[in-house]
Specification:
The complex is a heterotrimer of chains A (365), B (375) and C (224).
Chain A: H1 7-21, H2 24-61, H3 77-87, H4 98-114, E1 120-122, E2 125-126, H5 133-141, H6 144-154, H7 158-189, H8 194-199, H9 206-209, H10 211-228, H11 240-243, H12 253-278, H13 292-302, H14 306-325, H15 333-360
Antiparallel strand pairs in A: 1-2
Helix pairs in contact in A: 1-2, 2-12, 2-14, 3-12, 4-6, 4-12, 6-7, 7-10, 7-15, 10-12, 10-15, 12-14
Chain B: E1 17-21, E2 33-39, E3 42-49, H1 57-62, H2 66-73, H3 81-96, H4 102-131, H5 135-155, E4 164-165, E5 168-169, H6 177-200, H7 203-209, H8 217-222, H9 228-231, H10 239-242, H11 263-286, E6 306-313, E7 318-325, E8 331-337, H12 339-344, H13 347-351, H14 356-366, H15 370-374
Antiparallel strand pairs in B: 1-2, 2-3, 4-5, 6-7, 7-8
Chain C: H1 2-13, H2 23-28, H3 35-52, H4 56-87, H5 98-101, E1 116-117, E2 125-126, H6 133-137, E3 143-151, E4 157-167, H7 176-180, E5 187-188, E6 203-205, E7 212-213, H8 219-223
Parallel strand pairs in C: 2-7
Antiparallel strand pairs in C: 1-5, 3-4, 4-6
Classes of the chains: A mainly alpha (365), B alpha+beta (375), C alpha+beta (224).
Chain lengths: 365, 375, 224
């Protein structure tokens, strides 16, 4: 533990360094910019890994190699794709609403990046350590549909319009069960702050401590968030075989690239939230028992650095979402809504009641 | 627009709109254009537009000698190339009154049934892909590839074989043919459970197909549907049973009929037909006849004056070849009654009133091959 | 395990009334020619079902749970299959790394119909007698036999092959020319990388310059 450099040390060092050069106001501004840029860079690196991972996962599941041309094992494929997208012309179709058409991708990206603010990356490393972090995220994540609706509406394309409308119905519905499963975790932890929730899992993750309700809530959250990200089997907004490409049919070049990026950023954020709520964020795997063996085990787990836990859990949930995508057929729109309103929502309400009983009686570990 | 009364503020004015699905669309598997009138998600009307890949095959045959024009039929339903060639060859043989050797008959039927397997495997993959699952497409191709390798080794081509010719087959099969096919069937049978695991048993897939795309028996008959589409509606229409050719009458196989009338029934008929095809091939392989593979016929075929009709069962349904001969070496008229053209009529009655996603599911279970529609 | 969790959570709360209407969907599965028919059918069944048995509600809840469990199991089966493929390291890949394996693992069968060739023996002799049967058999006019008259030593006029022109650009590889050839003079090579940038490069002359017809062994030679 001695040799390990905590992230808080680094941030404190940067803070003191900046204070020695600048006035406190400017320090604050520079720190804001720095933290934003850092988070963005980390996220972009994650997205690059995710895009590569998606292709490889798809390839391996479909008995193919996946990308293997650009660089060793095709690792530079994503970079080559980004260069291609950057060099392509972005144009808007005839009689499209030009302004809306052009700001839609940027708006969608902004909204999904806003959800990054209260995320706890490592012990003490949070951009905005507020006591209503989770509430903020739930509020922001349902705003993502605005960009999609704008894109679909302004494209002057019927496929886009249908895709956008589907997406609207979908996100509004699935927000409910996602919210209810978040509430289950929040009720177990007793706080809305992301740091607080992670701290409450120091002696074991909620998925273990929270008994059956936590497991069900986790499953429902993964399903609902897959739907919120417009990922298969809930990719009705894109629905390649029905609507060609759905809401981004008319987008080309980097405007399309931003929608693509947005999808992956959403996936990353959703998996970070799932891991924060149910799998303990950056918290190592601890067992909630008081035996010497377990103590030793917990101690060994502490040696794995927190960033490894954080990204490991994040990519695990991302892998689940990719796994779903490359296995399942797509649902129809009415089945999608039926799944939410007839299955997920009742189950999550009942599950919340059950969780409340467990919390009140202190049955959770 | 001006004639319409202005809606009151509380009333939301809605209207139907027309979407052109195709000619270039991921779901149409070719250049078929479907003009769909939509009310939101609900399909109100369907109007298929043909002719984007019309190559005038029927007209081309009029300017070609009989023997030469057969290769064109592989380009109609490219997934049943063998069976199309078979139909033409049979029509010419019947007109000339040629008896073909037993070995040629056996080879022809094995090739036909292997072709049906390839077609249904491709169909399985693309059907799942239309419904949204991508992985089955690759699994279907994996199994299809093994059969295509057999085709490549024996007939020389993979897709548009010109192998079945009047009098028999073009070349004798390889000496290893029987063992190759036996090994192949073993492999394919081993993979069949994966199909069930991934798609047939899948809850989402079952809900996407069960009760969707209802085509009643009456509709199927009046639209002249054939093949798996009609058989899934309870119509007994297997040409191999009703008008057997080249020794199908001696083989033991079931005509697969389902009374479900929906997409799920069509899916099950396709899957069961694959099992039946494997069963047919196995029977022939057990006592594979030796002898000649081809009856020698003259270089220039002249059909006696008259009209000839021959029907066969392709992977998609009944293919009819109608030849009007005027005594020369070229047909006066050659008409193909292609299965996809008739089955296309089933798209509208199955889809109207359902959702736009069901249109894709219906089109994929009806199993259209667009060049077969246009010819 | 998860399914048991759902079951127990539902059972414990005893929220039975919530699911009374769920039977409707079960009965809706019956196909109708369009949406309206099936809805009517479903409602009919629903009314009948409600009249018949009072504790149908219990059964509908049971069906609801059964459906959820069935859905989970069926989806898990598919997931297991894809996971198996994902973690299998030595898998049979269905794709070929084509340009890399063109000299190694690529499998082109012996009989694959590639371009037509006119084989010559070591004395630069071929077997083509310029009978033009292949030209007549070709449905696409991709064969053009140009012959010339020459005089043999004993003064007879004889037609020999001058140029065997092969238009690869219009060939469909149907094998009819080889089938028609009475001399077995031509065959099909299993080459498949035939594309070029200029269409005119696809017109070949198959007989080599200076080649001549392979003399058939006379009757005497055959006997000996």
């Amino acid at each position: 533990m001695i040799s390990m450099i905590e992230f808080t040390d680094i941030t404190a060092w940067i803070h003191s360094l900046l204070l020695s050069v600048l006035t406190p106001t400017w320090t604050y501004i520079v720190e804001l910019a720095l933290s934003g840029v850092t988070a963005l860079v980390v996220l972009l690196v994650c997205v690059i890994i995710m895009v590569y991972m998606e292709r490889k996962v798809a390839g391996f599941m479909q008995l193919r190699w996946g990308p293997n041309r650009v660089g060793p094992y095709g690792i530079f494929q994503v970079i080559a794709d980004v260069i291609k997208l950057l060099l392509k012309e972005s144009f808007s179709p005839n009689r499209a609403d030009k302004v809306m058409f052009n700001i839609a991708p940027a708006l969608a990206l902004c909204v999904s990046l806003m959800a990054l603010a209260p995320i706890s990356w490592a012990p003490g490393l949070t951009m905005w350590d507020t006591n209503i972090g989770i509430l903020f995220i739930t509020a922001i994540s349902s705003m993502g549909v605005i960009g999609i609706l704008m894109a679909g509406w302004s494209s002057n394309n019927k496929y886009s319009l249908i895709g956008a409308m589907r997406s609207g119905a979908q996100i509004v519905s699935y927000e409910l069960s996602a919210g209810l499963s978040i509430i289950t975790a929040v009720a177990l932890a007793g706080t809305l702050s992301t740091n607080g929730i992670i701290q409450s899992q120091a002696d074991g993750w909620w998925i273990l401590k929270g008994q059956i309700p936590a497991i069900i809530a986790f499953l429902i959250y993964v399903i609902a968030s897959t739907a919120e990200c417009n990922r298969a089997p809930f990719d009705l907004a894109e629905a390649e075989s029905e609507l060609t490409a759905g809401y981004h049919t008319e987008y080309a070049g980097m405007q399309f690239g931003i929608f693509y990026l947005n999808e992956y950023i959403n996936m990353a954020i959703v998996s970070i939230i799932a891991s924060t709520l149910f799998l303990g964020g950056w918290m190592p795997f601890h067992l909630p028992f008081d035996y010497p063996v377990v103590q030793t085990f917990n101690h060994i787990m502490d040696f794995i650095p927190t960033w490894m836990w954080f990204f490991g859990k994040m990519f695990l949930i991302i892998f689940f979402m990719m796994w779903f995508r490359w296995t399942f057929p797509r649902l129809r729109i009415d089945q999608l809504l039926k799944l939410e309103w007839k299955y997920l929502l009742p189950i999550s309400i009942v599950n919340l009641l059950f969780a409340a009983v467990i919390i009140v009686l202190h049955w959770h570990l | 627009m001006e004639n319409q009364p202005t809606p009151s503020p509380t009333e939301l004015r809605t209207e139907e709109f027309v979407v052109n699905i195709g000619p270039q669309h991921p779901a149409t598997h070719g250049v078929l254009r479907i003009e769909a009138t939509l009310d939101g998600e609900t399909v109100k009307n369907i109007l298929p537009h043909l002719g984007y890949i019309h190559r005038g095959i029927e007209k081309m045959t009029e300017s070609m000698p009989y023997k030469q024009s057969i290769y064109l039929t592989s380009r109609m339903d490219y997934l049943s190339a063998h069976i199309n060639n078979h139909a033409c060859s049979l029509a010419i043989e019947n007109a000339l009154g040629i008896e073909i050797p037993a070995r040629a008959k056996a080879i022809r039927i094995i090739m036909d049934e292997l072709q049906r397997l390839t077609s249904h495997e491709l169909w399985w993959g693309s059907c799942a892909m239309d419904i949204g699952a991508v992985t089955p497409f690759f699994l279907g191709f994996r199994d299809r590839e093994r059969i295509l390798e057999i085709f490549e080794a024996n007939t020389g081509n993979r897709l548009t074989m010109h192998y079945i010719v009047p009098g028999g087959v073009m070349r004798d099969v390889l000496p290893t043919f029987v063992s190759d096919v036996k090994e192949l069937l073993k492999k394919i049978k081993g993979y069949r459970h994966e199909y069930d695991q991934l798609i047939t048993g899948n809850f989402i897939f079952q809900h996407r197909t069960q009760g969707i795309g209802y085509l009643s028996k009456e509709q199927a008959i009046s639209l002249a549907c054939s093949g798996p589409v009609a058989r899934a509606s309870g119509v007994s229409c297997d040409v191999r049973k009703h008008y057997p050719y080249d020794g199908y009458e001696k083989l033991d196989f079931k005509e697969v009929i389902d009374y479900g009338c929906d997409n799920w029934a069509r899916y099950l008929v396709h899957m069961e037909e694959m099992t039946q095809s494997i069963h047919i091939i196995e029977q022939l392989l057990d006592n594979f006849p030796t002898g000649d593979f081809r009856t020698k016929i003259k270089g220039i075929i002249k059909l006696p004056e008259g009209e000839y009709y021959q029907r066969v069962e392709t992977a998609r349904g009944e293919l009819g070849v109608y030849i009007v001969a005027d005594g020369s070496n070229k047909p006066y008229r050659m008409k193909f009654r292609t299965p996809s053209f008739s089955n296309l009529g089933a798209v509208k009655p199955t889809t109207v009133g359902l959702k736009i996603a069901d249109l894709m599911a219906n089109m994929s279970t009806i199993d259209l091959v667009v060049p077969d529609i246009d010819r | 395990m998860f399914c048991i969790g759902i079951y127990s959570s539902l059972k414990k709360t005893g929220e039975l009334n919530l699911y009374s209407s769920l039977q409707e969907e079960k009965l809706n599965i019956k196909p109708g020619s369009n949406g309206t028919n099936s809805v009517k059918l479903g409602k009919c069944h629903l009314i009948l079902a409600q009249k018949k048995i009072k504790n149908k509600q219990m059964k509908s809840l049971f069906n609801y749970i059964k459906e959820v469990i069935y859905a989970f199991v069926s989806l898990a089966k598919g997931l297991l299959l894809t996971l198996r493929y994902f973690i299998t390291i030595k898998k049979v890949n269905i794709t070929e790394e084509y340009p890399n394996n063109r000299t190694t693992t690529i499998s082109v069968k012996e009989r694959f119909y590639g371009e037509v060739v006119l084989p010559h023996n070591e004395n630069n002799e071929h077997k083509c007698t310029a009978c033009t049967l292949c030209q007549m058999a070709c449905p696409n006019n991709s064969i053009q036999i140009i012959s010339k008259q020459i005089e043999t030593e004993d003064g007879k006029k004889k037609r020999v092959l001058d140029k065997w022109v092969y238009h690869l650009d219009s060939c469909t590889f149907c094998y009819q020319c080889i089938d028609a050839c009475p001399q077995d003079a031509i065959e099909m090579k299993n080459s498949f990388e035939l594309s070029v940038y200029d269409r005119t490069k696809l017109i070949y002359q198959l007989n080599r310059p200076g080649s001549k017809l392979k003399e058939k062994p006379t009757v005497k030679e055959q006997q000996s």
